[in-house]
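[Automated response] Your request has been received and processed.

Submitted sequence:
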Amino acid sequence: MKKYPINSDKAKMIADNDIDLIGELLEVFLSHHNEQLAAIREAIKMEDGQGLQYAAHQIKGALRNFGAETAEESAYELEKGGKANDLHCVDEKVKKLEQELGVLADYYYNNDWEKDFIEEE
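Generated structure:
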């Protein structure tokens, strides 16, 4: 069984098995995720724990919409750091999130991901 950057069962459940809708969710997210990452970086730069919590929570929620669980967990770690106003080691957590988002983007843009979803059924 292939390992995907998204949980296809969860994505299909959320989208009521509508592969086109999953694609739309991914496309919208990927077209705006750099803005969300910029908000995370700005909050860290300004040492704004509450801002980091908010920005990380937003990206986490978006990732949850299509089951990108590994990236979602990375965003959650940043959210927790912001909530606790613990900004130590957040740079590594941001890098991890960026890597996970890169994997997600590569999967969407450079693979025949719809075929993978259909093959699983």
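Summary generated for your ticket: The radius of gyration is 15 Å. The mean pLDDT is 90.
If you did not submit this request, please reply to this message.
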